[in-house]
Amino acid sequence: MPDVVLLHNPEFFLTERMIQGGKPEESTQSEFYKRIESAFEALEELVEEGKIGAYGISTNPHGCQWSCTGHVNTAEATSTERLVDAATMAAARRGKSRHNFKVIQMPWNLLEPNAAHDGDTPGAIAQARSLGLDVMVNRPINAIPPPGFHTGDWSRASAHIKLRDQKPKPPSLALLTNVCQEALLDCGVNAYGRDLSELALMISMSVPGNSVTLVGATQDQYLRQVIKVLDAGRVSEDAAIAVVRKLRALLGEIEAGALH
Length: 260
Known about the structure:
Blueprint: E1 4-8, H1 12-21, H2 26-48, E2 54-58, H3 80-93, E3 101-107, H4 123-130, E4 134-138, E5 142-143, E6 161-162, H5 171-186, H6 196-206, E7 212-213, H7 220-232, H8 237-255
Parallel strand pairs: 1-2, 2-3, 3-4, 4-7
Antiparallel strand pairs: 5-6
Helix pairs in contact: 2-3, 5-8, 6-7
């Protein structure tokens, strides 16, 4: 029996409506959450039958920079509160007072840090935790850069880039590495000597509220790298927040055109 089953990016429904006629109206949003409620009701039934342990959703909620299609995440963003409301209604229709919606999966990486708590703004991860959901972070290495972030081969906001050391290393990735290392050193963590992907994984797993960081291991070297980071352990939440603040400041400058 699977512990948890996730609906994967159901907001493509909103994307399709955007393609057909611009920004989805409230009627479209309402239809979307009714469909979510119906799907959740079916999943509640599977929990009752002992076929799954719980359910969740993989989505890009409000607070994530980009949608699942790579557009700016506005019209396609999902509301975690409305997702929980849909689960509550689904459970009620099954005659239950408590739902089994337990997990939300969302992207987080060094170039898309806005879902994380930065000490001032709680972010989508903290909101999900406050609503009783465990958070799984995906795409810790596979990032969508903001406009203006040049990596040599990539410069489009819709293009994914790998947060891994390259030879020669593009100046933008070298800058990203240095920002993370300096922020960690200010918190007493010496991360010099670690490559960019190790930093990305270490900080991702340390982000306040994140329960699990999902990684791809298509090559042996990637798996060995994950094990190396796990052996090193998490950094403190304060250190992770310090990195998030530095990243937000850097990306703000880039998006404003201060860096080229």
